[in-house]
Amino acid sequence: xxxxxxxxxxxxxxxxxxxxxxxxxxxxxxxxxxxxxxxxxxxxxxxxxxxxxxxxxxxxxxxxxxxxxxxxxxxxxxxxxxxxxxxxxxxxxxxxxxxxxxxxxxxxxxxxxxxxxxxxxxxxxxxxxxxxxxxxxxxxxxxxxxxxxxxxxxxxxxxxxxxxxxxxxxxxxxxxxxxxxxxxxxxxxxxxxxxxxxxxxxxxxxxxxxxxxxxxxxxxxxxxxxxxxxxxxxxxxxxxxxxxxxxxxxxxxxxxxxxxx
Length: 261
Fold this sequence. Notes:
Layout: H1 3-22, E1 52-53, E2 71-77, E3 86-92, E4 97-103, E5 109-115, E6 124-129, E7 138-145, E8 150-158, E9 161-164, E10 175-176, E11 178-179, E12 183-191, E13 197-206, E14 213-223, E15 226-237, H2 240-244, E16 248-250
Parallel strand pairs: 12-16
Antiparallel strand pairs: 1-5, 2-3, 3-4, 4-5, 6-7, 7-8, 8-9, 8-10, 11-12, 12-13, 13-14, 14-15
């Protein structure tokens, strides 16, 4: 079976699954710790690992891509949380996989390989922005596509290198957004009154035969080192225009549907 057909079918099934999930009762909200968790991003160790390379020398303008082919610079942003800009490179390994290369201000290179075989054309750079509650930007890679459902692998810096930050939604471990005749799905980053960082997944389903939509907002709060599901709320939209505002990323620094246009 065509893998793009598989992922399109998965996306449709995921939306149907969410409709059933939204009807389930939500347990009591957990007690969250202080909104000021200790940083999980200490200085980079000096000894290289399989995903860590010594800093490049003599390539001052493109150090993230030094010494490798098929690589381009896609961002200059603080990734490791030290408040200094790091350089991000995209290396196309094949139409099935890419490598993200980060040259930190400490002159170390950390890398991660992402499977992009289900994104037409071999993946897409999705942008960089602070998403979770730890200092430093997360990196978004378009890695799977349905007919109208782009899905993204999110990379984040940890002391041992770049790691995948899974979506907390039961729909998919990838961060998916959607815009279609029958539904809209999006993510909104915001802060709670107590200072905690939150990501709310917003979903709207068309009421058959009308231009009205109903759905759910499900909020996940960053707690020290992971996302915790805390609240859910029913929503309704009286027009297509108001429902369409749900779709895509609503995160500073990211496009609504990164890499698709």
